[in-house]
Write a structure and sequence with these properties.
42% helix; 3 domains; homodimer; 26 helices; 5-stranded parallel beta sheet; Rossmann fold
């Protein structure tokens, strides 16, 4: 049998019966399974390979789901999914498992976790609930060092440290968040790590002493009473202890025996404990160990070589990066900010060319936005490049810090619209409603690369908060007669009394639908504020259909409808938007389901013209 | 002359010419001025009295506005306003100064600050901009210990610690945020404070040595080289140093000579420094020293006694608190959470009756929301009571942590709508658009106390995220024939073909307007999701007017309009909402300006019926 031990695990209880050799073998089988399956479908690889031993040790020591494990970020949960009876074949594709914890899949997934730094807050809530109910079960939060730069972690630690709960925080320290983690905390962790030898010594000593029954326990207790002395001598007091946690570590995150011992100790302490472990991202798969950033979230690849099956090519992200470099060459005031997404947002080249004007702030979107406002107050021209879904974190900072007293800040919003495999937690379908509540903001949504370039140029030469939002992936081929250099809006007149209004990448679909049906198209480039001119065009039509890759409440379609009704429009107005949370599936499929693909548009026009 | 020295200060440069005695006298004059003026208009008193010496020392040492001072939270800036040539008579009232820093008032106010924990991010941005421009001016952030519990502070410190900027963070530690600060960080600060004697000794020693020219400097340098030894001996390493800051303190925040010396040293270090000072909230005014929470933000009072000129009486906040206590008595699963606003949100009684189910998490709205979701995942029924404006911080947590996998969490949203004296930074006019983007959420907006009670009861007996939003201040008298026990919606038929739709406290105004004009009124109680039944009522009218205390984009009025247009409505629809940011002024005046008062409603109906 290929995965003999893995196949013998029917419940998590079976893990507890294995001896150390078999636990190690289980880890190797898990690695093999993860590499096999992720190479087929793509997914988060490096962090999952790093967390194999930890996951096995957690299920060995704790009794999930009574003692729940909250993963932060959730994409390191593949081993956990496998060990709790789930098949990861086809993960992140329609019909397959989610790439993140999902309670609908298993009672072992108590809390969703697609955004970082939420786990300690959630776990503390669960732990306080257990305390009120009189249970002394442990609750475990596993936090990557990348997620540790998020402010919520400190808000939660500040509260957890004074609680009387059995909360265990495992700091899974792989010296690398998505982009290398370069904050002061990272430096501090490195400093702690360098003292590992002491912990190993102390741990081994205690372990040896405990093996001598009766006598051992006595000595151990005595040893504990001088722990303050020991600790102060070796690493004096540390920040986690200042925050009220008992600190254990750093421990080798690939030594299963040591992990089990450390976690057992954490479990016995019955108050908040921080277990600091060192892991290697991509552990056990050479290409991923060598290039963990590439294998963080990866497309399907040849597992023998680690080469991608399809090269990634140009994308809106890479075009964004190129444009920012071009603009920065001419203007020494342009600065770029990312929250741990240098590669994802296309800023690698900028970071290398203009290091003094480049800021990777870690997973810290709130800070990033206000920091950008500060740079602007100091006379710079900052652009904050961020995924739409993560910008949700910085709403108050856009409103309060950048807009009440307007600062000239550009926001480059990547992954706007439907995103595909990451599913519910990562959809970029909420930013338009958020942004359009903000007085004074301007929002652009380009349909192709060259429009993206012009939008950025305009954003940098305007004032106040300027947002340019663009989708994941690459531009699509537009039918010849709709191709041109787009302006703030473009109007394509057809012969039928029906108008399609849309923006962004949906314009391509709309152009095809218009060709097929003879309807007109109003393509908006500067989507907010909405110019009255657009309403004047639309109100001449009997049928107006608005297609938009956003939730409906607060969408441009809704604002447009409101303006239309106030203008005295007396035709039929219909909107096609994204409803609810969109699970993981191909972008094209999601478009179809929400009536936003070419065919749905054609049918909608035909229906309207009946 | 009453304020002889104060009146002699024409520019901040004049402060630098004063000797220590006169500086002390200046502080006493400032206190006097603040107590006089705040007793007349109300405002933030206790924190301003605590920051007098600090403000004088900052302007003595630094060269504002080139070396800008960013106040966090901004309400401690009254002395700063006075010293930079502004008259605080009538502060927070229409025509008077804002209660927060405001760049339109003075070049000395570089950054708005009505929400907490933003200062280090902003200051770091300004400092990086200065660095790029080749300036070595200092940038100062003054942060209260309350604001220190906000996650943005740590995100910013994590980034600042590795920067090469002349950033100076003054931690203004008064052992008390708005509610007493009980987190682990507060405990840690208390621990540091207890070592003050050492700093004073070291500071005095260095000061004495420096007075001996030539020799002094040499010894001083030698002393510095053993600083690590000293430091480790006395307070070993501290968290701020772990985060990359040079730590100075704790210093007595009311000893002007010591403050000046410490700040001068911070200025000379030319890298990020944290200056930790201890102050007394309410310093120099006995009633405020005794009860700093009452005098945090206070209504007009008799300065001789500290008694309020008008007793506060009942309010939606106090009614909220009473209702939660009543519900919690019957249901042991109900927990209440506040982010440092126990009194402000009316939870004092709950906190005393049910301490084990009460959580004050400090200024940490993001954590509060996810913690609530965690409590719900653990089987509790949490309510998070929060001001509308601060809930903006937790949008992503409501969406991602509480709604993608729905958790039964109740949000009690206080200060919904227009708030009055606090102005732009505190308006509760954005929560409706935010909340209504969230799939599955239910939102209530009661018009009187008894409806608030029923809404809360319903919220606790339903599922998913349930928000109940209510205004500041007290309920208003409703005309007799519109009084009743309100349901999810109530329809009052008038004789004219015009319908007013509204909710919350505006219903009172609408009722009066309807009485006067004969129009009908549709009062919505459960404002979201909008039931189709409401549309069916409205579409029978020729004129429909929607009045709403919210920004328009994403408002219920807009959603309603959209549903109306799709229903085939062919009348006139007009909305009256809040536009832009509303500055500080009486609620009634703001209502008038935005067309939401009784008279404006009457005029709007008459205009529509013409």
């Amino acid at each position: 049998m290929e995965h003999e031990i893995l196949e013998s695990i029917k419940t998590t209880g079976d893990i507890k019966k294995l001896n150390n050799d078999r636990l190690e073998k289980l880890c190797s089988e898990l690695r093999d399974e993860i590499i096999n399956k992720v190479s087929e479908t793509g997914g988060h690889l490096a962090s999952n390979l790093g967390a194999v031993e930890l996951t096995v040790a957690l299920h060995y020591v704790f009794d999930s789901p009574n003692e729940p494990i909250i993963w932060d970020v959730g994409h390191q949960c593949y081993s956990h999914k496998i060990l709790t009876g789930r098949d990861i074949t086809g993960i992140r594709t329609e019909g397959g498992l989610s790439g993140f914890p999902k309670s609908a899949e298993s009672e072992h997934d108590l809390f969703v976790a697609g955004h970082a730094s939420t786990s300690i807050s959630a776990a503390l809530g669960i732990a306080e609930a257990k305390k009120i109910a009189g249970s002394d079960d442990s609750v475990i939060a596993v936090v990557g060092d990348g997620a540790f730069s998020g402010g919520m972690i400190f808000e939660a630690m500040n509260n957890a440290g004074r609680s009387k709960t059995n909360l265990i925080v495992v700091l899974n320290d792989n010296e690398m968040s998505i982009s290398p983690n370069v904050g002061a905390m990272a430096k501090y962790l490195a400093n702690i790590r360098s003292k590992e030898s002491y912990f190993r010594f102390k741990d081994n000593l205690e372990h040896a002493l405990l093996k001598i029954p009766a006598i051992g326990k006595g000595i151990f207790t005595a040893l504990r009473s001088v722990k303050t002395f020991f600790k102060d001598m070796f690493y004096s007091s540390n920040t986690f202890e200042h925050l009220g946690f008992t600190y254990l570590g750093p421990a080798d995150g690939h030594d299963i025996e040591m992990l089990i011992r450390t976690l057992n100790r954490a479990k016995s302490i019955k108050r908040p404990v921080l277990v600091h472990i060192n892991t290697v991202k991509g552990k056990g798969y050479e290409p991923a160990e060598k290039n963990p950033s590439k294998f963080h979230g990866v497309a399907p690849f040849y597992k023998e070589t680690g080469e991608l099956k399809k090269s990634s090519g140009n994308s809106f992200s890479s075009e964004f990066g190129k444009n920012i470099c071009k603009l920065a060459e001419k203007d020494g005031k342009i600065c770029a900010i990312t929250a741990a997404m240098t590669d994802g947002t296309g800023l690698r080249e900028f970071s290398e060319k203009y290091p003094e004007r480049f800021f990777d702030v870690g997973i810290a979107e709130e800070h990033a936005m206000t920091f950008a406002a500060g740079l602007a107050a100091g006379g710079m021209k900052p652009v904050f490049a961020v995924y739409s879904t993560f910008l949700q974190r910085a709403y108050d900072q856009i409103l309060h810090d950048a807009s009440i007293e307007p600062k000239h800040v550009v926001i480059g919003i990547d992954r706007a619209g439907i995103v595909g495999g990451d599913g519910e937690t990562h959809q970029g379908t909420f930013d338009v409603p958020l942004l359009t509540t903000i007085p004074g903001i301007t929002v652009y949504s380009p349909s192709d690369y060259s429009e993206l370039g012009r939008n950025l140029e305009k954003a940098f030469s305007s004032e106040g908060v300027q947002a340019v939002r663009y989708p994941r992936d690459s531009e699509k081929e537009i039918p010849e007669k709709f191709k041109k250099e787009y302006g703030d809006f473009d109007y394509f007149k057809g012969e039928k009394n029906c108008l399609i209004v849309t923006y962004g990448r949906l314009f391509v679909e709309a152009a095809f639908a218009a060709e097929e049906t003879g309807s007109s198209v109003l393509k908006i480039g500067k989507i907010f504020p909405i110019e009255q001119e657009l309403i004047e065009i639309a109100k001449k039509y009997e049928k107006v259909l608005f297609f938009e890759e956003s939730v409906e409440n607060g969408s441009i379609a809704e604002h447009f409808g409101k303006m239309l009704i106030e203008s005295g429009f007396d035709g039929k107005y219909k909107t096609f938007c994204v409803s609810g949370f969109v699970p993981h599936m191909k972008v094209e499929n999601a478009m179809k389901i929400h009536g936003l693909d070419r065919e749905s548009m054609i049918n909608a026009v035909k229906e309207a013209l009946k």
